[in-house]
Amino acid sequence: MVQERIPITLANGRRLLEDSQVYAHRHRSSSATKQRELERIVELIFDEFGAATENATGRRKGARILKVILFGSHARGDWIDAPLSANQYKSDYDLLVIVSQKEMTDRAAYWAKAEERLIRAYTIEKVLRTPVNFIVHSLHEVNDGLAHGRVFFMEVAKDGIALYEADDRELATPKPKTPEQALAMAKEYYAKWYPSADAFHASFKFLTERGNLNEAAFNLHQATERLYSCVLLTMTSYTPYNHNIAFLRSLAEGLDSRLHSVWPEANRAQRAMFQKLKEAYTKARYSKHFRISEEELTWLGERVEELGSVVHQVCSDKIADLEKAARA
């Protein structure tokens, strides 16, 4: 299902897979660097998963990573590169980690340290030139997604590059939905998630007017999260179980370039504003040190309104395409 690959045995004995498609991109000057980065990333994920499961007992003791698959723009070969200082859109590495047991998908319990280290490697240590996002699912969940024709998993199976495989077992054969089924699902997702985002945005405005600024920030975060979930579900019938709006944003921006311009990043102050909104999910509720001004909320609220407009257009275009396919 995933593309042809060539195994390499690393110093630690793990089989890392060098996919032939990666080497098809050698005409791009950055490909050798990217290959080294991907090797480092896979090693780091294994190291942190090993540390997180070191004292596991019972069924969890035998848990393991079955596959690590690169998907998205870096798998397709249409990624966008830019220096960290360039203040431009930059494609992330998107990875699907497939584990043997559903219990091992608990992000807080088993993957928080890996996520932390990858962020640090990019933003502080500068040993990675490309930011990394990863999602974790059990093999059963992935195969179930393929069996139910979820576009996200079908695209991973079609375009994904296997960076690591524990064995030769294949993913399930995808069973695409009929055009009518795909249309009905997209409409259902949009009808649920877009109004939900709008309700949280209305709560944000009400709470701002009352002066409950931290509560307003949390509700604005929820509006943002739901808008990104709306576009992901409408476009791919999938969104990860994750409240990290930076991660959701990255996945969504990989689907439609119109989403790239929603958040200005001309300077550090503008980037910090999005980071503050990201942190509001937890800190606005639980940290006594979290502070946000009415001016900051006004700026963020305007950006989320723009996000809502773009999400509406992107989803409307997708539904129109599905309607055309259903009539054909």
Automatic annotation (TrEMBL):
Which InterPro entries does UniProt cross-reference here? HEPN_dom, NT_sf, Polymerase_NTP_transf_dom, Type_VII_TA_antitoxin
Q: Which organism is it from?
A: Sphingobium yanoikuyae ATCC 51230
Q: For this UniProt entry, which segments traverse the membrane?
A: none
Write down the Pfam families for this protein, in alphabetical order: HEPN (PF05168), NTP_transf_2 (PF01909)
**A single GO molecular function term of this UniProt record:** nucleotidyltransferase activity
This protein's name: HEPN domain-containing protein
Q: Which residues form the HEPN domain?
A: 194-314
